[in-house]
Amino acid sequence: MAESKGAGLATATVALFMTPVVVVMLLLVGGNEASSDTGICGIEAEAPVAEPAGNKSVAGFSGKQLKNAAQIMTAASDLKLPVAAQILGVQTAIGESTLKVIDFGDGAGPDSRGLFQQRDNGAWGSYEDRMNPHTSATNFFKVLKTVEGWQDLEPSQAIHRVQRNANPNHYTQFRSPAVQIVKALSAGKLGEDFDEKFEDISPNGDCPDTSPDAEQIGDLGSGEWSSPLPGFKTMTSPFGPRQCPAGASCNSNVSDHKGIDISKKGGASVLAPTDMKITIAEQGQGWKSAYGTYIIAKQVEKPGLVFEFHHMVHGSLKVKVGDTVAAGTPLGIEGTTGNSTGVHLHFQVAPPGTPSNAPTYRTVVDPVPILKSKGVFS
Protein backbone atom coordinates (compact mmCIF):
# COMPACT_ATOMS: atom_id res chain seq x y z
CA MET A 1 0.00 0.00 0.00
CA ALA A 2 1.38 3.42 -0.93
CA GLU A 3 0.75 6.53 1.12
CA SER A 4 1.52 10.08 0.03
CA LYS A 5 3.36 11.96 2.78
CA GLY A 6 1.76 15.10 4.19
CA ALA A 7 2.43 18.79 3.62
CA GLY A 8 6.05 19.89 4.02
CA LEU A 9 7.62 16.73 2.63
CA ALA A 10 9.37 16.89 -0.70
CA THR A 11 7.11 15.54 -3.41
CA ALA A 12 7.45 11.79 -3.13
CA THR A 13 5.43 8.68 -2.52
CA VAL A 14 6.73 6.46 0.22
CA ALA A 15 5.79 2.79 0.33
CA LEU A 16 4.70 1.59 3.76
CA PHE A 17 4.74 -2.13 4.39
CA MET A 18 2.94 -3.93 7.18
CA THR A 19 6.11 -5.47 8.55
CA PRO A 20 6.94 -6.23 12.17
CA VAL A 21 8.20 -3.37 14.28
CA VAL A 22 11.99 -3.17 14.18
CA VAL A 23 13.88 -2.48 17.39
CA VAL A 24 17.64 -2.14 17.15
CA MET A 25 20.22 -2.64 19.89
CA LEU A 26 23.21 -0.45 19.13
CA LEU A 27 26.61 0.29 20.58
CA LEU A 28 26.78 3.89 21.77
CA VAL A 29 29.90 6.01 21.94
CA GLY A 30 29.97 8.89 24.42
CA GLY A 31 27.12 10.97 25.82
CA ASN A 32 25.41 14.27 25.20
CA GLU A 33 25.73 15.87 28.60
CA ALA A 34 28.83 15.91 30.74
CA SER A 35 26.65 15.65 33.83
CA SER A 36 25.31 12.28 32.62
CA ASP A 37 28.81 10.89 32.05
CA THR A 38 29.82 8.74 35.04
CA GLY A 39 33.45 8.53 33.93
CA ILE A 40 36.22 10.69 35.34
CA CYS A 41 35.58 13.48 32.82
CA GLY A 42 31.96 13.86 33.90
CA ILE A 43 32.53 13.98 37.66
CA GLU A 44 32.00 17.41 39.17
CA ALA A 45 35.40 19.00 39.69
CA GLU A 46 36.91 19.31 43.16
CA ALA A 47 39.29 22.03 44.31
CA PRO A 48 42.82 20.65 43.75
CA VAL A 49 45.76 20.40 46.08
CA ALA A 50 48.15 23.35 45.88
CA GLU A 51 50.94 21.25 44.42
CA PRO A 52 51.69 17.55 43.83
CA ALA A 53 53.11 15.42 46.61
CA GLY A 54 56.80 16.07 47.12
CA ASN A 55 56.59 19.24 45.02
CA LYS A 56 57.66 17.20 41.99
CA SER A 57 57.39 18.29 38.39
CA VAL A 58 54.56 16.90 36.28
CA ALA A 59 54.89 16.48 32.51
CA GLY A 60 57.80 18.94 32.57
CA PHE A 61 55.92 21.61 34.55
CA SER A 62 56.73 22.60 38.13
CA GLY A 63 56.60 25.28 40.81
CA LYS A 64 54.58 28.35 39.86
CA GLN A 65 53.31 26.67 36.70
CA LEU A 66 51.56 23.95 38.71
CA LYS A 67 50.21 26.52 41.16
CA ASN A 68 48.71 28.36 38.20
CA ALA A 69 47.21 25.08 36.98
CA ALA A 70 45.69 24.62 40.44
CA GLN A 71 44.08 28.06 40.15
CA ILE A 72 42.56 27.06 36.81
CA MET A 73 41.18 23.87 38.32
CA THR A 74 39.78 25.76 41.30
CA ALA A 75 37.96 28.17 38.98
CA ALA A 76 36.28 25.22 37.24
CA SER A 77 35.35 23.72 40.61
CA ASP A 78 33.89 27.03 41.80
CA LEU A 79 31.63 27.06 38.72
CA LYS A 80 30.61 23.43 39.43
CA LEU A 81 32.00 22.27 36.09
CA PRO A 82 33.18 18.69 35.51
CA VAL A 83 36.73 17.38 35.42
CA ALA A 84 36.57 17.59 31.62
CA ALA A 85 36.51 21.39 31.95
CA GLN A 86 39.53 21.39 34.27
CA ILE A 87 41.48 19.42 31.67
CA LEU A 88 40.41 21.81 28.89
CA GLY A 89 41.40 24.85 30.95
CA VAL A 90 44.87 23.52 31.74
CA GLN A 91 45.27 22.34 28.14
CA THR A 92 44.45 25.85 26.92
CA ALA A 93 46.87 27.60 29.26
CA ILE A 94 49.69 25.23 28.31
CA GLY A 95 49.09 26.08 24.66
CA GLU A 96 48.84 29.82 25.27
CA SER A 97 51.47 30.54 27.92
CA THR A 98 53.10 27.29 29.13
CA LEU A 99 51.19 27.93 32.38
CA LYS A 100 52.95 31.24 33.00
CA VAL A 101 51.29 34.60 33.66
CA ILE A 102 52.75 36.40 30.65
CA ASP A 103 52.81 40.19 30.59
CA PHE A 104 53.28 40.48 26.84
CA GLY A 105 51.53 39.46 23.63
CA ASP A 106 52.65 38.41 20.17
CA GLY A 107 52.32 39.50 16.57
CA ALA A 108 48.76 38.19 16.27
CA GLY A 109 47.70 39.78 19.56
CA PRO A 110 50.11 42.39 20.90
CA ASP A 111 47.62 43.26 23.67
CA SER A 112 47.23 39.62 24.81
CA ARG A 113 48.06 38.99 28.45
CA GLY A 114 48.05 36.32 31.15
CA LEU A 115 47.70 32.55 31.29
CA PHE A 116 45.09 32.52 28.51
CA GLN A 117 46.56 35.37 26.42
CA GLN A 118 43.26 37.23 26.61
CA ARG A 119 42.91 40.37 24.51
CA ASP A 120 42.28 43.92 25.71
CA ASN A 121 38.94 44.14 23.89
CA GLY A 122 36.56 44.41 26.83
CA ALA A 123 35.48 40.78 26.67
CA TRP A 124 37.98 39.53 29.25
CA GLY A 125 37.86 42.23 31.90
CA SER A 126 40.56 44.60 33.03
CA TYR A 127 44.31 44.20 32.77
CA GLU A 128 44.28 43.02 36.38
CA ASP A 129 41.61 40.42 35.56
CA ARG A 130 43.61 39.03 32.65
CA MET A 131 46.75 38.81 34.77
CA ASN A 132 44.98 37.06 37.65
CA PRO A 133 45.10 33.24 37.22
CA HIS A 134 41.77 32.52 38.94
CA THR A 135 39.87 35.42 37.36
CA SER A 136 41.17 34.82 33.84
CA ALA A 137 40.34 31.11 34.16
CA THR A 138 36.85 31.94 35.42
CA ASN A 139 36.27 34.15 32.39
CA PHE A 140 37.53 31.40 30.09
CA PHE A 141 35.11 28.88 31.62
CA LYS A 142 32.17 31.29 31.47
CA VAL A 143 32.63 31.56 27.71
CA LEU A 144 33.20 27.80 27.38
CA LYS A 145 29.82 27.21 29.04
CA THR A 146 28.15 29.16 26.22
CA VAL A 147 29.61 26.84 23.56
CA GLU A 148 26.76 24.47 22.81
CA GLY A 149 27.81 20.86 23.19
CA TRP A 150 31.38 21.74 24.19
CA GLN A 151 31.75 18.42 25.98
CA ASP A 152 30.91 16.59 22.74
CA LEU A 153 33.49 18.43 20.62
CA GLU A 154 37.04 17.27 20.00
CA PRO A 155 38.94 19.05 22.82
CA SER A 156 41.06 21.35 20.65
CA GLN A 157 37.96 22.34 18.69
CA ALA A 158 36.09 23.17 21.91
CA ILE A 159 39.00 25.36 23.03
CA HIS A 160 39.14 27.01 19.62
CA ARG A 161 35.50 28.11 19.99
CA VAL A 162 36.64 30.20 22.97
CA GLN A 163 40.16 31.24 21.98
CA ARG A 164 39.72 31.60 18.19
CA ASN A 165 43.25 30.46 17.44
CA ALA A 166 44.30 30.65 13.79
CA ASN A 167 44.91 26.88 13.95
CA PRO A 168 41.90 25.02 15.44
CA ASN A 169 44.11 21.99 16.13
CA HIS A 170 46.82 23.96 17.94
CA TYR A 171 45.84 22.67 21.39
CA THR A 172 45.79 18.95 20.55
CA GLN A 173 49.48 18.49 21.38
CA PHE A 174 48.91 19.75 24.94
CA ARG A 175 46.14 17.31 25.85
CA SER A 176 48.27 14.56 27.40
CA PRO A 177 50.27 16.84 29.74
CA ALA A 178 47.04 18.55 30.79
CA VAL A 179 45.54 15.20 31.81
CA GLN A 180 48.69 14.34 33.77
CA ILE A 181 48.62 17.66 35.62
CA VAL A 182 44.93 17.45 36.51
CA LYS A 183 45.43 13.92 37.79
CA ALA A 184 48.45 14.92 39.90
CA LEU A 185 46.73 17.96 41.39
CA SER A 186 43.51 16.07 42.09
CA ALA A 187 45.57 13.79 44.36
CA GLY A 188 42.91 11.16 44.92
CA LYS A 189 40.18 13.64 45.89
CA LEU A 190 37.72 12.14 43.39
CA GLY A 191 36.98 8.88 45.18
CA GLU A 192 38.64 5.62 46.13
CA ASP A 193 38.84 4.38 42.53
CA PHE A 194 40.50 7.65 41.47
CA ASP A 195 43.55 6.08 39.80
CA GLU A 196 41.46 3.54 37.92
CA LYS A 197 39.16 6.25 36.59
CA PHE A 198 42.06 8.30 35.26
CA GLU A 199 43.50 5.19 33.63
CA ASP A 200 40.33 5.07 31.52
CA ILE A 201 41.47 8.23 29.73
CA SER A 202 43.29 7.17 26.56
CA PRO A 203 47.03 7.89 26.03
CA ASN A 204 46.18 10.82 23.75
CA GLY A 205 43.78 12.25 26.36
CA ASP A 206 40.36 11.18 25.09
CA CYS A 207 37.72 10.95 27.79
CA PRO A 208 36.37 7.42 28.31
CA ASP A 209 33.23 6.00 26.77
CA THR A 210 31.02 5.44 29.80
CA SER A 211 27.72 4.74 28.11
CA PRO A 212 26.14 1.29 28.44
CA ASP A 213 27.53 -1.40 26.15
CA ALA A 214 24.17 -1.47 24.39
CA GLU A 215 21.35 1.02 24.36
CA GLN A 216 17.89 0.47 22.96
CA ILE A 217 17.34 3.00 20.21
CA GLY A 218 13.68 2.14 19.91
CA ASP A 219 11.16 1.38 17.20
CA LEU A 220 12.58 2.27 13.80
CA GLY A 221 9.12 1.99 12.30
CA SER A 222 7.73 -0.05 9.42
CA GLY A 223 8.33 2.49 6.64
CA GLU A 224 10.65 1.61 3.79
CA TRP A 225 14.15 3.08 3.95
CA SER A 226 16.68 3.81 1.22
CA SER A 227 20.40 3.19 1.20
CA PRO A 228 22.21 6.54 1.56
CA LEU A 229 24.33 5.47 -1.43
CA PRO A 230 22.42 2.79 -3.38
CA GLY A 231 24.57 0.12 -4.96
CA PHE A 232 27.78 1.30 -3.31
CA LYS A 233 30.74 -0.87 -4.27
CA THR A 234 32.63 -1.00 -1.01
CA MET A 235 32.80 0.16 2.59
CA THR A 236 36.22 1.77 2.62
CA SER A 237 36.29 2.37 6.37
CA PRO A 238 34.06 0.91 9.11
CA PHE A 239 32.82 2.48 12.33
CA GLY A 240 35.18 2.61 15.31
CA PRO A 241 38.96 2.75 15.91
CA ARG A 242 41.14 2.82 12.80
CA GLN A 243 44.60 3.77 11.64
CA CYS A 244 44.74 7.29 10.27
CA PRO A 245 44.27 6.93 6.47
CA ALA A 246 47.37 7.74 4.43
CA GLY A 247 47.21 11.35 3.31
CA ALA A 248 44.52 12.35 5.82
CA SER A 249 44.95 14.83 8.67
CA CYS A 250 44.37 13.12 12.04
CA ASN A 251 45.02 14.09 15.65
CA SER A 252 46.75 10.76 16.32
CA ASN A 253 47.85 7.62 14.46
CA VAL A 254 44.78 5.76 15.71
CA SER A 255 41.53 7.68 15.45
CA ASP A 256 37.95 6.87 16.39
CA HIS A 257 35.95 6.85 13.16
CA LYS A 258 32.52 8.29 13.95
CA GLY A 259 30.67 6.78 11.00
CA ILE A 260 31.18 4.56 7.97
CA ASP A 261 32.78 5.43 4.63
CA ILE A 262 31.05 3.95 1.58
CA SER A 263 31.91 4.56 -2.05
CA LYS A 264 30.47 4.11 -5.50
CA LYS A 265 33.62 5.65 -7.00
CA GLY A 266 32.19 8.98 -8.05
CA GLY A 267 29.14 10.60 -9.57
CA ALA A 268 26.55 8.77 -7.45
CA SER A 269 23.64 10.51 -5.78
CA VAL A 270 23.49 10.55 -1.99
CA LEU A 271 19.94 9.82 -0.83
CA ALA A 272 17.92 10.44 2.31
CA PRO A 273 17.67 7.09 4.13
CA THR A 274 14.31 7.96 5.69
CA ASP A 275 11.98 10.93 6.07
CA MET A 276 14.02 13.71 7.65
CA LYS A 277 14.31 17.47 8.17
CA ILE A 278 17.45 19.26 6.94
CA THR A 279 19.07 21.27 9.75
CA ILE A 280 22.47 22.06 8.15
CA ALA A 281 23.42 22.04 4.46
CA GLU A 282 26.63 23.88 3.64
CA GLN A 283 30.24 23.90 2.58
CA GLY A 284 32.10 23.63 5.87
CA GLN A 285 34.13 26.63 6.97
CA GLY A 286 36.85 26.92 9.62
CA TRP A 287 37.21 23.72 11.63
CA LYS A 288 34.18 22.31 9.80
CA SER A 289 36.04 22.53 6.49
CA ALA A 290 37.20 18.96 7.24
CA TYR A 291 33.65 17.83 6.42
CA GLY A 292 33.74 19.40 2.96
CA THR A 293 30.21 19.96 1.71
CA TYR A 294 27.97 18.27 4.25
CA ILE A 295 24.42 17.86 5.51
CA ILE A 296 22.95 17.22 8.95
CA ALA A 297 19.33 16.10 9.24
CA LYS A 298 16.95 14.80 11.88
CA GLN A 299 14.57 11.89 11.38
CA VAL A 300 11.00 13.20 11.23
CA GLU A 301 9.33 10.30 13.00
CA LYS A 302 10.38 8.46 16.13
CA PRO A 303 12.92 7.62 17.35
CA GLY A 304 14.44 10.85 15.93
CA LEU A 305 17.89 9.75 14.80
CA VAL A 306 20.33 12.42 13.59
CA PHE A 307 22.19 11.80 10.31
CA GLU A 308 25.35 13.37 8.87
CA PHE A 309 26.57 13.15 5.26
CA HIS A 310 30.13 14.42 4.60
CA HIS A 311 32.50 15.09 1.65
CA MET A 312 29.92 15.71 -1.08
CA VAL A 313 30.83 17.59 -4.26
CA HIS A 314 30.84 21.35 -3.77
CA GLY A 315 27.79 22.90 -5.38
CA SER A 316 25.95 19.57 -5.64
CA LEU A 317 23.48 20.04 -2.77
CA LYS A 318 19.86 19.63 -3.84
CA VAL A 319 18.26 20.55 -0.51
CA LYS A 320 18.41 23.49 1.88
CA VAL A 321 18.00 24.09 5.59
CA GLY A 322 14.38 23.71 6.64
CA ASP A 323 13.42 21.25 3.90
CA THR A 324 11.60 18.11 4.99
CA VAL A 325 12.34 15.30 2.56
CA ALA A 326 11.14 11.75 2.06
CA ALA A 327 13.22 8.59 1.99
CA GLY A 328 15.08 8.30 -1.32
CA THR A 329 15.24 12.05 -1.97
CA PRO A 330 18.54 13.07 -3.65
CA LEU A 331 20.67 15.22 -1.34
CA GLY A 332 23.89 15.73 -3.31
CA ILE A 333 26.73 13.87 -5.04
CA GLU A 334 29.41 11.76 -3.32
CA GLY A 335 32.77 13.47 -3.54
CA THR A 336 36.12 13.97 -1.88
CA THR A 337 35.86 17.48 -0.42
CA GLY A 338 37.31 18.38 2.97
CA ASN A 339 39.64 16.03 4.86
CA SER A 340 39.27 13.18 2.40
CA THR A 341 41.66 10.94 0.48
CA GLY A 342 39.25 9.58 -2.13
CA VAL A 343 35.70 9.77 -3.46
CA HIS A 344 33.26 8.45 -0.86
CA LEU A 345 30.38 9.30 1.46
CA HIS A 346 30.97 9.50 5.20
CA PHE A 347 27.63 8.52 6.75
CA GLN A 348 27.15 9.09 10.48
CA VAL A 349 24.26 8.44 12.87
CA ALA A 350 23.59 9.83 16.35
CA PRO A 351 20.90 8.53 18.75
CA PRO A 352 17.64 10.24 19.73
CA GLY A 353 18.09 13.38 21.80
CA THR A 354 21.28 14.46 20.04
CA PRO A 355 21.22 18.15 18.99
CA SER A 356 20.97 18.45 15.21
CA ASN A 357 22.17 22.05 14.87
CA ALA A 358 25.90 21.23 15.03
CA PRO A 359 28.19 18.35 14.03
CA THR A 360 28.28 15.50 16.54
CA TYR A 361 31.62 14.40 17.95
CA ARG A 362 31.11 12.09 20.92
CA THR A 363 27.63 10.59 20.78
CA VAL A 364 27.41 8.36 17.72
CA VAL A 365 26.22 4.86 16.86
CA ASP A 366 27.33 2.33 14.28
CA PRO A 367 25.08 2.91 11.24
CA VAL A 368 25.46 -0.65 9.90
CA PRO A 369 22.99 -2.42 12.28
CA ILE A 370 20.39 0.26 11.52
CA LEU A 371 20.80 -0.03 7.76
CA LYS A 372 20.84 -3.83 7.90
CA SER A 373 17.67 -3.93 9.99
CA LYS A 374 15.93 -1.90 7.27
CA GLY A 375 17.27 -4.09 4.48
CA VAL A 376 19.41 -1.42 2.81
CA PHE A 377 22.90 -2.72 3.68
CA SER A 378 24.39 -6.04 2.63
UniProtKB/TrEMBL annotation:
UniProt keyword Magnesium, yes or no: no
Species whose genome carries this gene: Paeniglutamicibacter gangotriensis
Record's keyword annotation contains Ribonucleoprotein: no
Pfam families with a match to the protein in the record: Peptidase_M23 (PF01551)
One function term, GO molecular function aspect: metalloendopeptidase activity
Keyword annotations from UniProtKB, A to Z: Membrane, Transmembrane, Transmembrane helix
PANTHER family, per the entry: MUREIN HYDROLASE ACTIVATOR ENVC, PEPTIDASE-RELATED
Transmembrane region(s): 7-29
Protein name: M23 family metallopeptidase
M23ase beta-sheet core domain segment(s): 256-357
